[in-house]
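INTERNAL AUDIT FORM
Audit reference: QA-55
Scope: verify that the stored structure record matches its stored sequence.
Auditor: D.O.
Record contents follow.
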Amino acid sequence: MPGSPAISPRRAAKLKTKKHREAERLFLAEGAAVLEEAPTEPLQVFDEVEQIRRVSTLKTPAGPVGVFPFLDVTATRLLSSVQRVVLLHGVQDPGNVGTAIRSAHAFGAGVALSRGSADLYNPKTVRATMGSIFHTPVAREVETVDFLAEAGGAGFGLIAAVPEDGGMPGTLPRSRLVLCIGAEGAGLPEDVVRACEMRVCIPSLAPSLNASVAASILLYEAYSRVLT
């Protein structure tokens, strides 16, 4: 950023920890492919071998490392900017969260992350988005039931993904939707399910589905129904 002081490798390396990311409101994005997805220039890029080794979170660095300001939006702004939202409740695996963000980007949706979900700016989450973090509006640290109430008031249909006793994905309404998905195994707590207007099940021979897989299937189904 023109006129801004340079960010040293030492300062950037501290962004590997959440405490320093939150204090600085900065995060790391690694690899040329991810940096190419950014619509704006990073505040700093480290592209020399020794700098990359110091700043990278990987044992085998994947290329240049950029420093970017936080990108998340408020819940209200998220709901005003998209027609579909996938709400991840208690999904703690950074890879699952990142992959869900990637799918949301693919299918024109936004993402809400509940308290207790993986950190949006965890380097593993950022890598799993493959650059979609720069294109997908994400609200983080939301209180799930409160978010659902706000979304319902804004005209969104509220859908709970459940393992049984729900409708087929093809029954999703052709409207603005919040698709609420819990962690594999744990699923959604009862108060979250009660806050939703409709339950949906994904037919599967396995006892449960990975949260990012479930998110991707339902996002695609909602997206395809808008197109047809």
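Auditor finding: record pair retrieved intact. Residues 86 and 179 are 5 Å apart (CA to CA).
Action required: none
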